[in-house]
Each structure stands twice: as C-alpha cells, then as structure tokens.
Amino acid sequence: MKADRIGLFGGTFDPPHFGHVAALKAAVATKQFDYIEVTVAGDPYQKSSSVQLHSADVRLKMAHAAFDGIEGVRVSDREIKRNGPSYTIETVRELLNDAEHVDLLIGADLSSQLDSWHESVLLRSLVKVGVIPRPGGEEDLPLGWNAYLVPMDPVDLSSTFIREAANLNENLQDLVPDPVIPIFEGR
Prior knowledge:
alpha/beta; Rossmann fold; six-stranded parallel sheet; 20% strand
C-alpha cells in the first residue's frame, strides 16, 4: 500500500548533530508524514570537491547512530547505492513510487539555493518544501516553491562548525549524540 506523505531529509551528515535531531523531531511532531526518510548523500556534488568528508559508509553509520531511535524516522542508503552525484530529484522520483506526496525538508540556509539544484524546475513541481528555521538564516520561504515553515526553535549548530571543533580537539558531547562521537572520531 502506498504511503500518503513521506518527508525527505537528505544531507551529508558529517557529522549528524543535535540540530538535525531537533529538526527531525519537530517535523515528526507535525504528524504530517507516514514517515521521514533520512537519506545520506553518497556523492554530495555541491560539497565533495571543496570539503574533506568521511566516506559515505561512515556517514551512514553516524546517521544510524544519531537517528535510529527517533520514532517515525528511517535512515536510507539509497543515494549511497547510486553511482555518480547524489541528486535529490532522483530520490524524489523513487519515493513517489512509494508515496502519493513527498515533502523535501531543508534548513532555511539552503532555501535560497533550491533553484540551483539539479532539475530544480521539475523538483519544484513534485514536492512541497518544509523549511527548518536556522539562527541567522532567512526564514523566508523560497519564491516559486510550494513551501511552509516547520515549527521549531532554531538550533545554532552546523556540521562545518563541529568538524572545526573536532580539529581543535574540543569536546563534542554538547554538539552530537553520544553514539556518533566514536564513529566520527574513528574509534
């Protein structure tokens, strides 16, 4: 039986952090979704050339460690299994085989970039966009997209900040779920 609505929360997740956890819990709390799929990018083409990332398999382990305990959330390796760059449009097409509707859940910091995404015109016609507030980020909804704000208090965290903190040997316990730390640090 086809689901009515699936939320798609994709990302690099290097590492997944408490901001991601809060966003997922806020989206689940809206009770709009049959489930939310967390999709780990296999080749995050907009980042992979400029940022040193953990392998996709390690990022998938971290996502499982961070999100498996959240009811209504499923972690997926579908983009890791695909060859080439990870395009959201391909994931949406696959999810539409399983659901009548797909909502793309993104941080407010990404909403202004949606038009630069691969096949964005088609993507715009296929999804609703749930925008997750970010501190200092715009809370404006992306123009031309069927979009709404996910109600939650913004969390001031980014994976970039956490990678920098880890490089300085700072304690990560207040930044990422405990089970993620040994995987991220390679223990």
